[in-house]
């Protein structure tokens, strides 16, 4: 016999101490999970067959337990009749007491108004022990009771005060004045302590009978006993429910623990009701205003002020925020008078500008209040800086806004998947989005994949909650900006039973959406926002075949063999070897071999539509779309067939095959050739293999390694066959490239498996060539921009990978790498006179190569809005304004930097007589008339100087500038010329070969008062005032086949 002093469980052993006569220290442990009163399943247990000897201590799963002293209507405790104490447990000072034992059987409960105590068993002795546990002298129950079993109940240890550690349940629909729906609490996952609210106010469970069908459930649950006082601590209370008869407490579910808390509220340890559609009620007459309380040891609320401050700091230091340019409503931005910019933000080339600031006050005008103006500047990297000043008066504050496509929270909860339909697998609604502190914008993910909200009906108990929330309307397009969409919630098969608060949605570059989620309407039971993903591989070549004749729309069901679909994945339909598709119109009930035939509620997509989502209807007794199953994804495939992502429906139904629209089936083989990647499918049927191929004039249809494709004609040009006749065109920050389809096929590569670095950027077949394109706007395609010391290089590659899903593969991988490179700097002198509208210096370039150009333009005004257009009389000391601009490069990534500008009396930029205007990116310190207005911040640079002449009897000036391109991401494109240390070293990775651009001549006018000026200065009438530079876009390409 094992000695056991602490009372901890040693299963199946007898525990004793030296006090051998005291049952508190000499007992046998009984730990059998089926004795739990929560167990309402019938079983074969029978305690009348057990040889009971002595005293016992109860456990459940290692947790100290006790016999139930509360009737539970539907419990079986591992047998048929649950046995409980008919009376309360003794106290320590009571010693050993005798208690009656009663039995409850739900078969009796179903036909009687009082099942509790319907069976009387043999009495037992009970004793309360130090350490807060009980021991029982169990005996054989009355043998006339059907399979009796002693029941146990265990309560979790309370590690912290539940008055400060609870979950809030703000459920107005639980009030006893509500009805109309039947929400069952066995559908929810209960765990821990809860506090009830009614739209933010305190409310409590009723203590008196509630009529059936109130509280939006069938059996309303109420507390059979008074609430405790604060000094009572945690108490246990019986829970009753009224059923279809007149008795208020016909149904008794598991007891719960209750505690009264400081602040005049209660917390409840709620548990899942045993069975039937029952739900906890709240008493509308007990509503009271909540009183603020503070936990003595635990903080249960977020510091909102600190949270907002951190968000504001994030906005300024980590995100791209700026002042709004439109009216902001009063009291927004946490101030009385929100301040906004009354005018557009400047461009980078505008430099520092002054903008008026407005604020709306108590009147109807947006700009009632105007504080002091501020200065604003656009900076490289797509952000702004502001010289903020203290507002003159009023309680005013500067507002900010930000792009939600950049500033969003991520939501990556796997249970939000539309395929997480809990009620099919017996799970419960565990999540409730009314309890989430929604704050800002959110982007959805599923297992790391980008996801979006569904735009169609989804059944209840999906996505972790009870009511599934979906978007009532289509997602916006990029150009739509932020839109507002209604939100609907489902109730059983009723799609739009609930209507929640609308949310804002925005489409973002990169093919994703962001959502400004808000707290759903409290009248909706446990709502949860949904999401789904799109496929990561092409389902046209990764599907399962379904060739089952019973799916036909003309096949009636067999009552002895009802078909129900439970599969999930991508499928292609066949009928006796012929390619089939789902019907797009109503199918009669009991067809397709099932109770509920399912058809596509919408048309099939076209090839160019890609993967689309379609609603699925099930025909029933009341109409064609009596049932709505989960939506499915559909794709049209080359070869005139469709694939479907079938999911297990919410009822016994089957996906139908339309026998009125059959076509010849594509034939493929599962034996993959060594040098060609084939779909991993097996189908049957006969077809013309070449009918679906559009071979060009230089190709012909043929077979290679058991697969048909376009082969090259014998007279086909095979230049660069080792690179598949690769051809490219580079333009600015974009590129197009193509390869020969027939050469790829002959080498064992299918055109449809090729893509750029981004798998979504697939090729397009045109005239026998597979073409690809990328640019630096909305079609980046995984292109990388790097600098190697002499060039800026755009890198990408064409990749073809096998469609195999096994552990190993011996298929070849194709990789064609290519680059488009910019020489970062060039030198060019303009040899014509000034005319800013026409004169451009051209350089001939080989066909197909990229280009950009640099222009130098003089302006008449310091705002750079009026370029010189005709003859010019420039007077001595007249201020000249010059802009140097690069065109044809990505302004988001490059800046133009003037390194040096100088003047010569002749056209030769290398002439020995020269005067420096700009030296190493800063004005010549020996010429205080030079002002560098903008340099290294955008694709244009600006400076000014005052007109002069060379004293060596010359009246003409020619301007020359050495310019360079710089990567804005380096943050080293501009220099502070006022720091006193502006002579800096050349940056090898940011600046490269120098380039010069020249313009002139500039000549003095006769009106000059200086007597030594003899010649009239005129602007020549050449074809342009701007110099232009065409720079080659160097192309580099290599290819690689990996084995």
Automatic annotation (TrEMBL):
Domain ZP: 729-980
PROSITE patterns reported in the protein's UniProt record: ZP_1, ZP_2
Keywords, in A-Z order: Cell membrane, Disulfide bond, EGF-like domain, Glycoprotein, GPI-anchor, Immunity, Innate immunity, Lipoprotein, Membrane, Secreted, Signal
Main localization of the protein described in the UniProt heading: membrane
Keyword Metal-binding: no
Keyword Transmembrane helix: no
Protein name in UniProt: ZP domain-containing protein
């Amino acid at each position: 016999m094992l000695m056991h002093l602490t009372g901890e469980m040693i299963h199946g052993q007898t525990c004793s101490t030296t006090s051998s006569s005291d049952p508190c220290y000499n007992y046998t442990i009984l730990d059998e999970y089926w004795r739990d009163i929560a167990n309402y399943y019938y079983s074969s247990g029978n305690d009348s067959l057990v040889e009971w000897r002595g005293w016992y201590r109860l456990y459940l799963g290692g947790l100290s337990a006790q016999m139930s002293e509360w009737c539970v209507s539907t419990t079986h405790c591992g047998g048929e009749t649950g046995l409980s104490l008919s009376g309360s447990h003794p106290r320590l000072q009571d010693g050993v007491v005798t208690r009656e034992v009663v039995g409850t059987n739900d078969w009796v409960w179903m036909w009687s108004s009082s099942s509790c105590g319907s069976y009387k068993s043999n009495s037992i002795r009970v004793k309360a022990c130090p350490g807060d546990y009980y021991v029982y002298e169990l005996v054989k129950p009355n043998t006339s009771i059907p399979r009796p079993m002693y029941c146990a109940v265990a309560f979790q240890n309370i590690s912290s005060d539940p008055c400060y550690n609870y979950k809030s349940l703000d459920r107005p629909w639980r009030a006893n004045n509500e009805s109309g729906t039947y929400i069952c609490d066995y559908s929810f996952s209960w765990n821990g302590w809860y506090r009830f609210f009614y739209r933010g106010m305190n409310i409590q469970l009723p203590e008196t009978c509630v009529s059936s069908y109130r509280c939006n459930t069938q059996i309303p649950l109420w507390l059979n006993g008074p609430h405790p006082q604060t000094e009572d601590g945690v108490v246990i209370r019986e829970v009753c429910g009224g059923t279809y008869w007149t008795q208020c407490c016909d149904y008794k579910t598991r007891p719960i623990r209750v505690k009264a808390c400081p602040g005049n509220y209660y917390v409840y340890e709620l548990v899942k009701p045993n069975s039937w559609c029952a739900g906890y009620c709240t008493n509308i007459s007990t509503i009271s205003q909540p009183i603020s309380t503070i936990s003595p040891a635990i903080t249960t609320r977020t510091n909102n002020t600190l949270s907002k401050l951190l968000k504001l700091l994030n906005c300024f230091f980590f995100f791209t925020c700026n002042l709004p340019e439109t009216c902001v409503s009063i009291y927004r931005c946490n101030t009385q008078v929100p301040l906004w910019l009354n005018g557009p933000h400047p461009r980078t080339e505008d430099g520092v500008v002054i903008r008026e600031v407005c604020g709306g006050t108590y009147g109807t005008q947006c700009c009632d209040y105007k504080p002091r103006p501020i200065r604003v500047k656009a900076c490289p990297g797509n952000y702004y800086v502001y010289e903020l000043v203290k507002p003159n008066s009023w309680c005013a504050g500067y507002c900010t806004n930000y792009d939600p496509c950049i500033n969003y929270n991520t939501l990556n909860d796997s249970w939000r998947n539309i395929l997480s339909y809990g009620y099919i697998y017996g799970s419960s609604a565990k999540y409730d989005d009314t309890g989430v502190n929604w704050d800002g914008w959110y982007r959805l993910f599923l297992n790391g994949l980008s996801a979006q909200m569904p735009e169609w009906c989804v059944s209840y108990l999906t996505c972790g909650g009870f009511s599934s929330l979906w978007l009532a309307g289509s997602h916006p397009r990029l150009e739509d900006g932020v839109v507002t969409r209604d939100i609907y919630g489902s109730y059983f098969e009723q799609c739009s039973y609930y209507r929640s608060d609308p949310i804002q949605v925005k489409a973002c570059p990169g093919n994703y959406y962001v959502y400004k989620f808000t707290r759903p309407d409290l009248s909706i039971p446990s709502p949860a926002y949904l999401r789904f993903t799109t496929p990561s591989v092409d389902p046209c070549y990764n599907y399962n075949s379904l060739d089952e004749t019973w799916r036909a729309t003309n096949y009636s069901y067999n009552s002895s063999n009802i078909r129900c679909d439970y599969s999930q994945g991508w499928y292609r339909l066949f009928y006796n070897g012929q390619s089939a598709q789902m019907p797009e119109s109503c199918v009669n009930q009991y067809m397709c071999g099932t109770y509920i035939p399912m058809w596509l509620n919408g048309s099939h997509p076209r090839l160019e539509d890609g993967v689309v989502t379609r609603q699925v209807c099930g025909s029933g007794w009341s109409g064609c779309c009596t049932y709505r199953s989960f939506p499915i994804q559909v794709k049209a495939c080359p070869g005139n067939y469709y694939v479907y992502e079938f999911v297990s429906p919410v009822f016994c139904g089957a996906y139908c095959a339309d026998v009125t629209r059959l076509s010849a089936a594509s034939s493929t083989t599962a034996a993959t050739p060594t040098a060609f990647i084939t779909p991993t499918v097996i189908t049957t049927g006969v077809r013309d293999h070449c009918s679906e191929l559009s071979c060009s004039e230089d190709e012909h249809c043929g077979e290679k390694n058991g697969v048909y494709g376009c082969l090259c004609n014998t007279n086909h040009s095979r230049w660069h066959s080792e690179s598949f006749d690769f051809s490219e065109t580079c333009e600015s920050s974009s590129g197009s490239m193509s390869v020969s389809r027939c050469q790829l096929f002959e080498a064992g590569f299918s055109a449809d498996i090729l893509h750029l670095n981004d798998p979504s950027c697939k090729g397009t077949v045109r005239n026998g060539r597979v073409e690809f394109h990328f640019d630096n706007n909305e079609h980046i395609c995984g292109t990388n921009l790097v600098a190697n010391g002499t060039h800026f290089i755009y890198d990408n590659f064409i990749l073809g990978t096998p469609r195999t899903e096994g552990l190993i593969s011996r298929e070849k991988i194709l990789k064609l790498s290519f680059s488009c490179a910019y020489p970062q700097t060039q030198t060019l002198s303009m040899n014509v006179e000034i005319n800013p509208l026409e004169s451009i210096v051209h350089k001939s370039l080989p066909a197909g190569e990229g280009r950009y150009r640099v222009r130098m333009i003089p302006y008449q005004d310091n705002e750079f809005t009026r370029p010189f257009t005709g003859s010019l009389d420039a007077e001595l000391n007249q201020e000249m304004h010059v802009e140097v601009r690069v065109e044809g490069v990505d302004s988001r990534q490059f800046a133009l930097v003037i390194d040096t500008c100088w003047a010569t009396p002749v056209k030769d930029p290398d002439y020995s007589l020269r005067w420096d205007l700009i030296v190493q990116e800063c004005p010549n310190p020996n010429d205080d008339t030079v002002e560098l207005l903008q340099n290294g911040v955008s694709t244009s640079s600006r400076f000014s100087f005052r007109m002069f002449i060379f004293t060596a009897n010359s009246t003409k000036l020619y301007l020359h500038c050495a310019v360079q391109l710089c990567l804005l991401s380096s943050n080293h494109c501009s220099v502070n010329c006022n720091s006193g240390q502006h002579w800096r070293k050349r940056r090898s990775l940011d600046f490269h070969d120098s380039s010069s651009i020249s313009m002139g001549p500039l000549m003095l006018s006769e009106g000059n008062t200086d007597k030594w000026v003899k010649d009239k200065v005129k602007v020549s009438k050449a074809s342009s005032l701007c110099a232009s530079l065409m720079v080659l876009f160097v192309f580099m390409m290599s290819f690689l086949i990996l084995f």
